[in-house]
User: Fold these one by one.
Assistant:
Number 1:
Amino acid sequence: MDIYASDEEKGEEIKRWWRENGLSVMLGIAFGIAALVGGRYWLTQQAMNVTNASSLYQQANVYLAEGKTSEAASSVDQLFSDFSATPYATFAALDMAKQSVANKDINGAKSYLEWVINHAKLAGQKDIARLRLSQLQLSEASYDDALATANQSDTAAFKSLFDELKGDIYLAQGKMTEAASAYRTAKTTLEESESRGLILKLKLDDIAGS
C-alpha cells in the first residue's frame, strides 16, 4: 500500500520551497526580531541555530540516500533535541517516516509521524502526518484509530484527501453507505483540475455495483 501516492506532491512542494527559501526566511525573521529588541546576541544565536539545523537536515538526507538509516536517525534525533522548533526537524521526521515505511518499520514510521503532529508549526505539515498515520493504521486494520486520526484534520486543502480516506476506512469495515457518502463528499470538495475525480468515481461505481 503506497501511503504517499495522494499527498506526495503537496508535501514535496512544501519541502522544495523550503529548501530554496527556508534559510533566507528564517534568517530574515531572526534579523527582524533582533532589530526590534536590539539583541545582537540573540540574533547571532538564532542564525547559528538555523545554520546548524540546516546542516543536520542535509546530513540526514545524505545518510538516507546512502542507505545509512541508523546514522540518519542519529542526526534526526539531534535535530529533535536541539532544534525542534525549526522546520528542518519536521521535514526530517517526515523523511524518516517514509524511509521507515520502506524498511517495513511501521512502528518507527508511526512514531515519526506522531512527532510531526505534536511539534510541527504549520497546519499543513500536521495534516500530511495525520494522513499518512491514518493510512498506516488502516493498513493494520486499526479502523477506529485510523478514523479518529483522520477526523483530526483541520485544513481545507486536505479535506478531499481525508474524506476519501474515511471512505476507504468505511469500505474496509464493510460500511458501504458510509463509504459512498464519504467518497461523494470527497468528490464534491475536489478541485476540478485534480485527476483524483476519476478514482473517486470508480470507487463509487464499485460500491454501486456491489
Number 2:
Amino acid sequence: MRYFSAVCLIWVFLGTGIVIPESFSREAPGMDIDMEPVPSLIQSIRFPDPLAFCGIPVPLEDPMVKAAMEKEMLLILWNRPQVILWMKRAARLFPPIQKILAEEQMPDDLKYVPVIESALRPHARSFAHAVGYWQFLKSTGLKYGLQIDNQMDERRNIWKSTRAACLYLKKLTAEFGSIFLALAAYNMGEHGLAVEIDAQQTHNYFDLYLPLETQQYLFKIIAAKLILEHPEKYGFHLNPEDRYPQLNLAALDLTLETQVPVLIIARAADISFKTFKELNPDIRGYYLSPGPIRIQVPADSEAGFHARFSRLYADWQKTSPVRIHVVKPGESLTGIARSYRMTLAELLRLNKISYKKVIHPGDRLKVR
C-alpha cells in the first residue's frame, strides 16, 4: 500500500513541477516502473504564440479565451491513457483522412475533429444516436450520401464518412462564413447556431454565448492538435512500433446476384469473420443483400479473391439451398420473391405465412 501511495505522490509532484528527491524517485523493491519525463502542467499550458487552427489565429490575448483553452488542455492531459490511444489510432487513420481532406481542398487541421468526436473509433455512439468516426446523425448522414440501413452503416466507413464530413463542413462554412462557426454548427446544429447569431448579433465564434459543449468544442480540437503534433513536448514518447501500423488494404467491388453470407466473403479473402468485420465496420449483420458492394480486404489476398469467392459461393449454394433475406424499407413479398426468381407461392410456403402477412424492415425471411 505504501508503494501505491508513493507512486501517487510522484504523479502529483510531476504535474505540479515540484522536484522529486532522487532517493524518493528510485524504483521501489519488487516494482517495475517505467517512468517517462513528463512536463509540469504549468509548462503544458504555455501555448505557442501565435496559436492558430486552420490558419486562423486563436485570440489568446483575450483572458476568457486563454482560460477556456487552458481548461481543455489540462482536462485532456489528465487522461493520459486516452491520449496514447489517440496517438496509436491516428497512425493508422490519419493517412486516409488527410488524403481525402486534401482532395476536397479542406484544411488538414480538420483531421483532429474525429479525434474529439469519436476518439477515432468506428463504433462510437452518442446519447443522441450519432454514430461513427465523425458522429453523424442518421438524418444528416443520409443527406450527405451515406448508406444507413439494416445492411450497411457507412458512418463507420472512414473513407465515405470523411468525404461526407467534408461536404457538410463545406456547406456550413459557406453558410456561416467561418470554419470556426462551421464547427460550432457541426456540434450544435446549424439552425440552433443561426438562432444564436441572430439573437446576439455577432459572427465571432469567441464572442458568442453558446451551449457549454459547443463553447468547449473548438478548444478541445485545438488541444488535440497541439498534443498530437508535438507529443514529446507533453511527455508522450512512443516509438514507431508502439503505434498501430497502417493497414495495407485493397478495395474490391462485388456485384452479388443473391444474398450471400459474410462468412463466405471473409473466407474468400483468407481471413476470419471477425477480421473481415473489423476491416469493414460499416457492414452489419451476417448476410449481404443482392447488389453492388465495395469491401476492404488485405492487399495480399486480392490476387485470386474472385476465383476463391466463386468456388466457395458455388459450394455454399449446393449445401445451403435455404438462405435468409433481411427485409429492407419499401420491400414487398412479391418483390422479394421476384428478386430471388421464386414465385410468391413458393416464398409463402417456405416461410409458412399468408399472403396477407405484413412485413417490416428487419424481418427475416427464408429464400432459395
Number 3:
Amino acid sequence: MPMLSRTAANLFWTGRYIERADFVCRLVDATARLASLPSTYGGDPTAWTGALASAGVADAFADTGLEPSELNITPFLTIGAANPSSIRNCLERARGNARAVRTALTREAWESLNGAWHEVERFTGPRLSRARAGELVEMVRRAVLAFDGSAHRTMLRDDAYWFLQLGAAMERADNTARLLDVKYHLLLPRDEAVGGSLDYFQWATILRTVSALTAYRWVYRDTVKPWLVADLLIFNTQMPRSLASCYGEIVELLDHLGEGSGRRGPAHRVAGSVQLGLEGTDIDQVFASGLHEFINRFLADNNQLGAAVAEQFLF
C-alpha cells in the first residue's frame, strides 16, 4: 500500500534538514580553520562571508544589519533564530517532522535526533564563543552520525527509509554544488595567481568540509589542484558526496519507491536525465564551458527534481 503523502513529506524533509545541519556544522568547522590561519599560510579574511554564501543565507544575514565578522556570523550559522538554515533551526524542523511520523522511525533513530535537539538547546544565548561553537559543532556531527547509523542499522528497507534517504541525498548534492560554486566564483584569489598558497588552502578547506581530503590524496596522489577537486566532487562515483554519487543513489531510491507504488513519474525522468548528463560530461568540458555555469544548471535541475518529487509523492 503506498505511503500517505503527508507521511512521505515528513520523512523526506527530516532527511533534508538533518543533512543540512550536518553540512553547516562542517562549514563552520572548516571556515574557522581557514580564518584562523595567518594570511601568509592561506588565512582568508573573507572566509566567513564565503561561508554565508555557501549556506545560501547571505541575504538573510544582511537583513540583520550586523557587521560580517566571525563574532556575528558564527552564532547566526549555528543557533541564529533569524537564519532558516542555522543548525538549531534545521534540527528543530527535522525533529518536528520526525515527531509527526514517530511510528515510522525506530526508537534508536528517534532518540538520537531528539537527544541532539535537547543538547543544542543548551547552547542558546546572546553570545557564542569560538570554543562553545566548536563544542556545538562536534556534538551535532556526532549526533548526525548516530542518527544515520541507527537508521541504517534498524529501519526496515521500505518507503519510510527510502524517503528519508531521498531527502538526504538531494540535500547533499545541493550542498556540494553550492560549496564548489562559492569557492570558484567568490573566493578565487584576487591578489595572487591561481595555484598560490591561498588558493591551495582554500581548496584544501573545501575538501575538509566534505571529509574528502584523504580520498583526494588516495585517488589522485597529487597536490591539491582546482580541476582535480572539482572532478572528485562532481564525477567520482566512489566519493559519497559527489554529484554523480548522489544522483546514482537518488535514481536507485526512486526506483525502489516506483516499485512500491507500481508506477514511475516525473521525478524518475528528471533524475534519470541529470544522471545521464553527468555520465556524458567530463571535467574538461565543465571548465571549458564554465564551472559556475555548470553548477547553476545543476542547481536548477536539482530544484526541478524537488518539485517533481513533491508532485509525484508529497501532495
